[in-house]
Amino acid sequence: MTWVLDNLELIAGLTLDHLRQCLLPIVLGFVIAIPLGWVAFRFKLTRGLVLTVTGLLYTIPSLALFAILPTVFGVRYISEANLVIALTIYAVAIMARSVADALGSVDPAVRQAAVAVGYGPWRRFWGVEFPLAGPVVLAGLRVTAVSTIALATVGILIGVDNLGYLFTNGLQRRILVEVFTGVVAVMVVALVIDALLVIAGRVLMPWAPRRSGRSRVVRQALHAGGAA
Amino acid sequence: MNLFLDAFAWIFSPERLTGSVPLPLALGQHLFYTFVSVVIASAIAVPLGWWIGHTGRGRELAVAISGAARAVPSFGLLVLLVLLFGVLHKPEAAVTAFVLLAIPSILAGAYSGFEAIDRRVIDAGRAMGMTEWQLLWRVEVPLGLPLLIGGLRSATLQVVATVTIAAYVNLGGVGYYIIQGLPLRDFTQILGGAIVVLALALVLDGLFALLQHLVVPRGVTAQGASELRETPSRRRAAVAAVTK
Fold first, then answer.
1. What is the ipTM of this complex?
2. How far is CA B180 from CA A76, B14, B59, B203, in A?
3. Which of B43, B46, B53, B151 has CA atoms 20 to 30 A from the CA of A32?
């Protein structure tokens, strides 16, 4: 406990770094996955392609992905950009599938009704389909956010400082409390972001059933293997 | 692209068969840790998941565990257990970490496999006079197998990825080359190791995909299964189960 009190500043700083590194991948993953998920949902031909490719991307172990990205994107191996790109790829991989599933969960009758009252494709997507798909998209976003935050700690292995620093530093100095603090801090950050997403969902989608998220999250978690 | 060629040359160089850590040995270690961990995790999670799926008891807890497990940083858990067990028991500590990381996926696969079964099929079995035991082994287990294999697939891939990271605590495995390459500034070795890990993950994923396909019982095609799941009664049951 004294270790924690003595190092509050370090922990707070690392937490901020951690959040900064995670926020962009979560947002980018969400934004990129919307068109990808739509393409997967809309056309049978592209469905298999998109879901297979994103599924395979998620099976790539993180340490291997860090090594492969520099040769593909020209970023430095030891850089925050490398970590952010890797986390974005994993986020897209989870989100594309859940956006496709979410759009599939919209009642076809509602879609036809929208067509019947004269909605064009663009307005129908943003005004009818996407809001109705919202609860399932949110479930996917929660899984994405939590796993991104947990996964980001591996960044310390390519020299990127975040809460993962407490693991390597704690191991080298044999301070159990430091490592434990790191694990707890990561989980707390993940749970706080998760709670914020739930609240945002309630504010933005007051019509959604309150508790349907959980079983969705489990099913999502089943799809999302690999990485770490 | 030259870097990739160098990396492949590194992988297939005869030097990989000698040296302090030959590549086949590293691969063997990697597979061994993965296999042992997934088997131990299955021995715990499969019976438990089946029990939850069959009785419906403890479901809330299992859901909560699967959810919270996502938030656990695997690298942190690994380091924590290594420090807790002491340096002399590193393999035990690592395997414990891998098992803990593998359990949630397998548990979710086991019980959600049972939950995805059309209740009418189970009611039909009961109406025919099947005992609970027969119902479990002849109806629920075969029908739930594809989702269970899916859970095992996720768990295996997660363990493969975590074993890679475990090279940081000197556990060996293919991650050794990636971790060792950093202080050596040997990017060819890092990329070579990464390609081997990637290939290992993809091969295991492919094998599980194949297995998942093979265990679908005759008479239940993938098409039929998804149709069953889409029926209104099933949806109502699912909603009822969630809002309970």
1. 0.87
2. 17, 19, 43, 24
3. B151
